[in-house]
Amino acid sequence: MTTTPTSSTAPVLRTAYQKSVAEYWNNEKDPVNLSLGDVDGLYHHHYGIGDYDPSVLEGPQETRDARIIEELHRLESAQADVLLDHLGPIAPEHRLLDAGCGRGGSSIMANARFGCQVDGVSISQQQVDFANGQARERGVDDKVRYHFRNMLDTGFPTGAFQGIWNNESTMYVDLFDLFSEHARQLAFGGRYVVITGCYNDVTGGRSKAVSRIDEHYTCNIHPRSAYFKAMAANGLVPMNVVDLTAATIPYWELRAQSSLATGVEDPFLTAYREGSFHYLLIAADRV
């Protein structure tokens, strides 16, 4: 059954920082996102995991870059599949929320897998419009809908969702505020999953490489411990914690060899290899 969401009366963009983030993503047309999505029409805004096929670096030079792009896209879709694996049992009558949905690829994958309604939210109107267009093209816009809303105050009903996820979007918000809103929206026993980069508390504050990542994406990467503190404060109990750091390094190694490299590849690889930065999946139940 389709549930009509409620509306928040507060403005979507509430701070100068949120406005700057929205402006960044409204203007973003990075080929590293668009060219990968062009492979099969699933447009992601996250990185990949798993070993890449070394054969993509071999063969005719004139098709080498196309092979790399297809392989990078396979790895990022594999990452989304791992996230969806951790949502638990989802039935067609359930409802899911993609918080910080980007151009919407993961929401479409979730609907294809579970057959349920999926709502995505973004503070970028351009992303929302693009994602809704993709849903229409695929004929799933009756089940997959994207909204120009702030994930810290979505206006959706309390307890409406069986599952919620953030895929590399938590570094733009306060975690205590975010998890408070997620806990409100999740049904009792519902599942929250986050995949994120976070800096390693053990090594101290942000390393130089992590600071360069922050600057590149206009974000504010949180320490690893902050996730668990904010979850504990909001009735979210971690059930699975998976360190994906080693699994994401091949993606960055391959991306560095493509025409789509943006210059941020070296900071990512440096931060991962030196141990100052972790790539984590945390799945938590609402209790």
UniProtKB/TrEMBL annotation:
<dbReference type="Pfam" id="PF13649">
    <property type="entry name" value="Methyltransf_25"/>
</dbReference>
<keyword id="KW-0808">Transferase</keyword>
<dbReference type="InterPro" id="IPR041698">
    <property type="entry name" value="Methyltransf_25"/>
</dbReference>
<dbReference type="GO" id="GO:0008168">
    <property type="term" value="F:methyltransferase activity"/>
</dbReference>
<dbReference type="InterPro" id="IPR050447">
    <property type="entry name" value="Erg6_SMT_methyltransf"/>
</dbReference>
<protein>
    <submittedName>
        <fullName>Methyltransferase domain-containing protein</fullName>
    </submittedName>
</protein>
<dbReference type="InterPro" id="IPR049645">
    <property type="entry name" value="GPPMT_Stmyces"/>
</dbReference>
<keyword id="KW-0489">Methyltransferase</keyword>
<dbReference type="InterPro" id="IPR029063">
    <property type="entry name" value="SAM-dependent_MTases_sf"/>
</dbReference>
<feature type="domain" description="Methyltransferase">
    <location>
        <begin position="97"/>
        <end position="190"/>
    </location>
</feature>
<dbReference type="GO" id="GO:0032259">
    <property type="term" value="P:methylation"/>
</dbReference>
